[in-house]
Amino acid sequence: MESGEPGAGGLLQQILSLRLVPRVDNGTLYATPLVSFPEMWYGVFLWALVSSLSFHIPAGLLALFTLRHHKYGRFMSVSILLMGVVGPISAGILTSAAIAGVYRAAAKQMIPFEALTLGVGQTFCVMVISFSRILATL
Questions:
Q1: CA atoms within 13 A on the CB side of 55
Q2: Residue 70 has what DSSP assignment?
Q3: What's the rounded Cα separation, in Å, for the pair 21 and 55?
Q4: For 33, what's the count of Cα atoms within 13 Å in the CB-facing half-sphere?
Q5: What distance in Å separates the CA atoms of residue 58 and residue 120, rounded to the nearest whole number?
Q6: CA of 40: how far to CAs of 11, 19, 46, in Å?
């Protein structure tokens, strides 16, 4: 596809237009801050979704491989994969919006590394709570 055609690199251009990827200008690396609420929310949400999927996809594949001969156990991999997608989409949207709302209310700009840290931090908190038995004691 030529770059003049509509839709050529559309998704990539949309992601780059959100300034979530640091730019290189004359050999100097700099990060454009995220200023508006949608930019901050989308940045944190995308990192939470990607980091969650990076944990849940290998876990789902491992469960599928180890439980492939079990009568009902093979369906556990489907539930693991669903948790990796549904969790960040439902709870991740709300927590990312809350984080972006706090940044916006404080009139603070967010650099892309902060979006990465907060998005991966959400996944880390979910993993810690999942592996510890805190929920079983409630």
A1: 21
A2: S
A3: 22
A4: 9
A5: 17
A6: 18, 10, 10
Residue whose C-alpha is closest to residue 105's, from 20, 45, 34, 37: 37
Distance spanning both ends of the chain, measured CA to CA: 56
Its pTM surpasses 0.85: no
Q: Which phi and psi (to 5°) does residue 121 adopt?
A: -65, -35
Tens place of pLDDT per residue across the chain (138 aa): 444 455 556 656 665 566 555 555 555 555 678 888 988 999 899 999 889 888 888 888 888 888 888 888 878 888 888 888 888 889 889 999 999 999 999 999 998 889 999 999 999 998 888 888 776 776
> Which tokens hold the place of 81?
């994969």
**Strand spans (E) along 6-129:** 23-25, 28-30
> In the block, which residue shows the tokens 């491989």?
65
The identity of residue 42, as a single letter, is: Y
